Amino acid sequence: MKMHMLTGGRLRLRRSIYFPSADRSETVDLPVSSALLRHPQGNALFDTGCHPDIATNPDARWGSLTRVMTPVMGKGDNVIAGLTGVGLTPDDIDIVICSHLHPDHCGCNVFFKRATLIVHARELEAARAPGAAAQGYLPIEWDHPMQTDALDGERDVFGDGRLVLLPLPGHTPGTIGALVALERDGPFLLASDTVSLRETLDEDLIPRNTWNADALVKSLAEIKRIAARGATVLCGHDDPQWQTLRKGAEAYE
After folding, report:
1. For the chain, what is the radius of gyration of the CA atoms?
2. Are 83 and 247 in contact (CB under 8 A)?
3. What is the pLDDT of residue 127?
4. Average model confidence (pLDDT) across the chain
5. Would 90 disulfide with which of 12, 103, 108, 111, CB 3.0-4.6 Å?
6. Could you tell me the strand order of the sheet in which 186-192 lies?
7. pTM of the model
């Protein structure tokens, strides 16, 4: 199996969301990432990033959310362009795994009409709840007629231990991560927004955009156990880490 890291956009947020001591005027620019897993049994995409229109007309798609997450991305900073760069189209993707249903993680779902969507049942419940849009669940991004497989617990996607999905609630009720076992480069944990920035894990900083702090603390403890066994934790939005990663056609194997 190969893993390709693809850009899903770039956003500007208040630094105080992640660092409690930061002044509210400080901002931080964060990458949005997606991972393409090319397995002999099929192609899986972990998160689909921001919709391409976010680069040109974000207010029309996200409305007031752009005041919280301000796009700072170019026209080519999206998963669809990234797939083209590795010789694939959306129709080549068999499985879309959504770590959660915030718009910077599921914005390109609409393009994957052949794929089965795997998402946690509690995440679907949260997205469908009254007032969910105010919590960042925008129907224009997540509510599409895809074949959906609602996850409840761990899932070995291909049955061989190479791609195992793990519930990691806290950021949202149904956040999931993916443990990826590669033959040459070893194990990786795609942590999504359970660990948006590395400091969350290293300094036990609970971000302000956390749904349930107690649940997040338990999920972080589980990630630390996995990391102690040798897995490289890939954070959801950590720019220093993102700058060091292989991207596009330069795969992990």
Report:
1. 17
2. no
3. 98
4. 97
5. 111
6. 155-156, 163-167, 176-182, 186-192, 232-235
7. 0.97
